[in-house]
Amino acid sequence: MASSSLALRLAITLDPCLLAEAAGYSLDPWQQRIMRSRSPRLGLLASRQSGKSLVTACLAVHTALTESGALILLLSPSLRQSQELFRRCLDIYRAVDRPVGAEAENALSLVLDSGSRILSLPGTERTIRGFSSVRLLVIDEAARCETERSAAMAISSTARNMRTHG
Ligand SMILES: Nc1ncnc2c1ncn2[C@@H]1O[C@H](COP(=O)(O)OP(=O)(O)OP(=O)(O)O)[C@@H](O)[C@H]1O
Ligand SMILES: [Mg+2]
């Protein structure tokens, strides 16, 4: 692994906000609090276009880059919306020059050499059934996710770290 990749991984392990900075974003104070939070659950209630999706994409990429074998699920009311959020994740991953290599990188998923995965799914209970040991669950536009409650409950039995927003 290149020393710059290692340096970035060390830096973002110490301060998660550095991931956003390395990707070219200067996070607002509330976004910084989200990135540095150790809470197992987060709910974001914020105005339109305030940066909710961006900061949750940063969280997803941060988890994937700093842990091994982490399963990260992105849920939205529709697959198209999940893909939008996933696209943000890919943009961030690429902007920081892929500090962990990818086994697979496509429109719906990113699988890293470390075994960590980011998968985008439509927010219905049926699509998330069967996943176990979810490390991070992001529910975008949660207020519009009809199955948000059942999805969260289905996942929470196995998730060590569950975060929702929207
Ligand atoms: N800290 C930041 N610095 C620079 N640009 C930012 C920052 N946070 C968000 N943005 C940009 O602002 C725009 C809106 O961000 P984002 O889509 O994350 O907001 P949102 O709250 O999810 O919006 P919506 O309510 O429409 O879902 C995007 O272009 C995003 O890149
Ligand atoms: Mg959004």
List keywords for this structure.
single chain, 166 residues, Rossmann fold, five-stranded mixed beta sheet, 7 helices, globular, binds adenosine-5'-triphosphate, binds magnesium ion
What does this structure look like?
By secondary structure, the protein is an alpha/beta fold. The chain has a single domain, classed as 3-Layer(aba) Sandwich (Rossmann fold), CATH 3.40.50. Helix content is 43%, strand content 16%. The chain has helices at residues 3-14, 17-22, 29-36, 52-66, 79-95, 125-128, 148-156, and strands at 71-76, 102-105, 109-112, 117-122, 134-139. A hairpin with a 3-residue loop joins strand 2 and strand 3. The chain is globular, with a radius of gyration of 15 Å. Bound molecules: adenosine-5'-triphosphate and magnesium ion. Magnesium ion (MG) binds at residues 52-53, 140.
